[in-house]
């Protein structure tokens, strides 16, 4: 019963989503998966493999934002212990985005994404009632929640025990009644090694995208 209550709460908290199934074969069939390095201002590091074949537009969008410096200096603004940590909002309060959205790459939106929402998975946040509302906000799961499979665009996973330990430390911090951490965790940088490859992002241009992502 407690788990169901937590899931219902988190469903309301999650804000942004991702990309739609392409009829043609992925243009990145023989391209190795990019590796993201998330460095916090305290010097701790999380490394994640990004699943290019499973969520190509979502990964391309994340790479573009990360390598342009979009995430640098942002807060981990939401912590639900045992469930997730969330970041990627330039307003640091769940209301912001990059000024556009991308289509949701998950099965409820017509896209077969096989990545399960297990511990350490990176996935895009989205508005509950809008499957194509993801932009820049993403969450990292501390626990495993297969209930999210098909509903959110999972696109990567932490790669090693050191990364999981950093996740656990951040996820274990005290929070207020709105799940805002009482200890500030800032992102120093997020950079992605594309191994020499470049990617194109399909965006949905929306002037309201930066002000609607907090309607959860």
UniProtKB/TrEMBL annotation:
Its EC number is 5.2.1.8. CDD domains: cyclophilin. Residues 46-192 form the PPIase cyclophilin-type domain. The keyword Signal applies. PROSITE patterns: CSA_PPIASE_2 (PS50072), PROKAR_LIPOPROTEIN (PS51257). Residues 1-21 form the signal peptide. It catalyses: [protein]-peptidylproline (omega=180) = [protein]-peptidylproline (omega=0). The keyword Manganese does not apply. Keywords: Isomerase, Rotamase, Signal. Pfam families: Pro_isomerase (PF00160). GO terms for molecular function: peptidyl-prolyl cis-trans isomerase activity. Belongs to the cyclophilin-type PPIase family. PPIases accelerate the folding of proteins. It catalyzes the cis-trans isomerization of proline imidic peptide bonds in oligopeptides. This is Peptidyl-prolyl cis-trans isomerase.
